[in-house]
Amino acid sequence: MSLKKDKQKVLGEVFDEERITGFLIGEAPAGVNRDFHLLERAYRSMKAESFATFVKLFLAEGMDLNSPGPDGKTLLARIAEHRQGAEYSEILKTAGAN
87 is in which domain, residue-wise? Predict the structure, then answer.
């Protein structure tokens, strides 16, 4: 049995739309799907409300919510096991992730 990292609580950071849009910029490490990397980075950094805004912007850029991580799992599949992931899972499902 392996232990999974859970989402850490994000405290005191203000995420306006400009800051959220900044999460659409960046390159993934070698061997990691860029769309997955950007999506996971936003998930780990944002409160649910900001993450919902990010997902809308992410989709508007034509990015793929179902892109696989290095283990072949989508972000939705990964966070299904996180105690604090339910609200984020709903955001992803509502946006069309499967």
Answer: 32-94
Let me know if residue 19 belongs to a domain: no
* 38-57 pLDDT tens trace: 999 999 999 999 999 999 99
- 8-state DSSP, 80: T
Question: Could you tell me if residue 55 is inside a domain?
Answer: yes
Please report whether residue 50 resides in a domain.
Answer: yes
* Angstrom distance (rounded) from CA 64 to CA 62: 7
CA angle, 92 then 94 then 98, to 5°: 55
> Is the pTM above the cut of 0.90?
no
Q: pLDDT under 50 in the chain at which residues?
A: 1-5, 7
